[in-house]
Amino acid sequence: MFELRYPEGHTEFELPTVSGKATGLRLATLLDVMAETEYEPLRSMMVKMLAYSVWQEHSEALEVRAVFGYVDLPTPSEFRQGKKESYHPLFAYDLDFTSARTQGQ
Amino acid sequence: MSSLTNRLRNFLLTRQSSIWLTILRIGLGLQVLCYGLSLRGDWLELLGQENQGLIRRDLAEAILSARSPFIPRIGWIVDFGAHLGLSEATVLWAVWTVLMFAALLVVIGLFCRISSAVVWLLYLCTAKSAELLSYGVDNFTIIGLFYLTIAPLPDSMALDARWRGIPTRNPTLHGLHRRVLQFHMCIIYFFGGISKCAGRGWWNGVSLWRALTRAPFDTIPPEILIRASFILLLAGILVCVMEATYPIFIWPRKTRFLWFAGVLGMHVGIGLMMGMYLFASVMIVLNLAAFGPGFAFNRSAASKVRRPTTPGRATFPTNDLSAN
Fold first, then answer.
1. ipTM for this model
2. Which residue in A53, A59, B299, B310 has a CA-CA distance of 20 to 30 Å to B41?
3. Does B206 lie in the same domain as B143?
């Protein structure tokens, strides 16, 4: 999930978007790869690239906070008891796009 | 000993019609067409580098280079295009167009050898350059396209044979190639099945439940799935057993159709219930080509002797020992 912070102070939440369902299935693979990558510099670079693709759609934003987590799905018996899926953050990155925004202008 | 050698030779060098190759060629050609059309809207996002991609292509290709510098990639074609003064976007769209055109030629069977080699190479390049976003469908399509490229083309239904008059190849060669594909399918299912059997989740339905309720594969609401949880339990066990025992029960005449139909049913289920249509279709194509007509069931046209229709172009009777 990406938290976009704008100059006037408001915040928006975004998920990476693609235009087709076929690409959506592939995006799920990418998110899995990111979560499983243990080499921190590589994971950080992948997160930055994905955040940049999101920022390009919202180039007014100054900062992007990228939060990665996993969804804990209930088992069938837990689901019957009313338990819902729960979200657990794994890692977060704060990315500053001030200079990119300035260059864009 | 010589009897065993003869039996092995007869098993490997069985005579086959080219129907399996027709299925492989048309199926994979359509598969690649669907792949290209389904990704058309995101083509530059997937493979772009110049501030366009989800993940820049150079990162994926750097990871590839760490494994081997010889793995084909889109970057080579883009670099070549840059020498000619072409932009990255132009080259990427040119790759898409050539891939689609070559896949169309594969479907109709015109210039099959060269067109299948072009499709295989371009598909390999795109899949490897977007490997961080790739999943099973790409691996299996690449495997299938490789077998198609080295197969004894053309098959009797291809325009190369029917229109250009190129003779079909020796049926024994068809038999050998089909056997190799059959063995490969057996290995794929055996290890897939064994790895599933090793986990507890496939025996109690939880793995299947998780697979079907996890985004973006959750096409069926969990409220509906939970009503059929006993089917999930049964289906999970069936998937384990069917995959792990595929290399055993796909060969005997009495069980081959059951296992063949079961595996096809499993892939249809994956396609419909998880929305993985391309993955389902490539597995169905590979199964049909490997164990379909002339093996799991007989197609009358495939098992009949055909008389040569033009001089120098002969089609041969099938004599699949295992099918008789």
1. 0.84
2. A59
3. no
